[in-house]
Amino acid sequence: MKKLSLYIFLVLMFSLFTSYSFAAKKHKIYKKLPCHFNGVKITSSAQFHSGVSRGRCCPECKGYKKKRGTTMEVKRGTPVVAIADMKVLKIEDDSSEQRSTSYAKKYGMIEGIDFYSKKKIVKPYDAMRIYFVDTKGNIILYYHLKETHLVPGFNKGKCKIPLEYEWGRKKFKPEDCGGYSKELIKNNLNVKKGQVIGLSGHAYVAHFSLGIAVPPDEEFRNFILKIIKNSDEKKILVDWSKCDDTYKPRYCYGSDFKLIPKSERKKIQNVTAIEPKYYRLAQTFFNYPYSFTGKYMRFTAPQRDFKWENLPTDSDAYLFPVMSKKYLKEIGYKK
Questions:
Q1: 224 and 192, same domain (yes or no)
Q2: What CATH code is carried by the domain that includes residue 208?
Q3: N or C: which end of the chain has fewer CB within 10 A?
Q4: pLDDT in tens, 131-176
Q5: What share of the chain is helix, strand, coil (3-state, %, to 5)?
Q6: Are residues 87 and 228 in the same domain?
Q7: Are residues 241 and 101 in the same domain?
Q8: Is the bond preceding residue 249 a cis peptide, omega within 30 degrees?
Q9: Number of separate domains in the chain
């Protein structure tokens, strides 16, 4: 009888263990992003446009007034993944080795005092930003990243980050640093859901921030989807009504800022007309996403406003921006 009881106990324990292991691998959709996942702790919320001053995950944490992304505290150098199938709009690197700031005392990351400004120093200061647009017309912003393999030339050679952010700040762009990676160009600047897009950084604390800006209405959403489609087809957007025919050579400006002489318009095949009221918006969308999202779109509180999933599928839910080490191993990721 004792042997039978022991056998039943072991079977139950084995069953419990295996069911727990299976559950850990099982796909799950969450109505809201969990406050803790895969080593990430959510703290201060994005509040620009969203009306959220203190998030549910950290009620005592309050970000600055125009904060565009929710803070994801995680160890510096942690791989960060694409939360959806997306297209790169712009990548910029404003990082520096250190930053002199009056906020240092608040975070307890004092590394000394700057001789000139007498402000306390925090370091490192990672300020790389990546703007994506997803298949829903939403713009996804990652910032305070340490590095990205999408632009291999960042923080190398002439694109080496400066010592000090305040008085030595430089904004590096892919075109100045050897361009985008061959793989990204091959994929027409598209990344897949679950693909590693960079490494988390440090700015006062080890973290990166994630922002999601949505169109104000369906008309605007359709406009964004249209210009993305034309971009994928490598078409130049032109508002013919704005063509200047009073000067020589007569021309129109395309969405890529290249001049299109009137004499050559008929020769150009990959041209599509766009409504006059949206023409300048299309240029701003591609070239100045910071201004575009702040003025024409609405930043949300990502941890509150969307469904999320723990494994990548073709669902409409966004994927956790940081995945487990096991997942990274399975996709063959290597630093």
A1: no
A2: 2.70.70.10
A3: N
A4: 999 999 999 999 999 999 999 999 999 999 999 998 888 999 999 9
A5: 30, 25, 45
A6: no
A7: no
A8: yes
A9: 2
**Which spans in the chain are helix H?**
2-25, 104-107, 165-168, 182-186, 218-232, 276-287, 289-296, 302-305, 325-330
Can you state the angle between helices 276-287 and 289-296, rounded to 10 degrees? 130
Compute the C-alpha angle 304/306/312, nearest 5°.
125
Q: What phi and psi, each to the nearest 5 degrees, are found at residue 129?
A: -125, 140
Lookup: tokens for 1: 């009888």
* DSSP state letters, 226-274: HHHHHHHTTPEEE-GGG-B-SSSS-EEE-TTS-EEEGGGGGG--SEEE-
- pLDDT digit string, tens, across residues 288-325: 999 999 999 999 999 999 999 999 999 999 999 999 99
265, with CB counted inside 10 A (0-12, 13-18, 19+), is middle
- E strand or H helix at 139: strand 139-147
- Return d(Cα 267, Cα 250) in angstroms, integer: 15
Task: Report pLDDT for 110.
Answer: 60
pLDDT tens digits, residue range 31-50?
Answer: 999 999 999 999 999 998 88
Domain assignment of residue 232, given as a range = 218-288
> Is there a domain that residue 14 lies in?
no
Q: Closest Cα to residue 63, out of 52, 74, 75?
A: 52
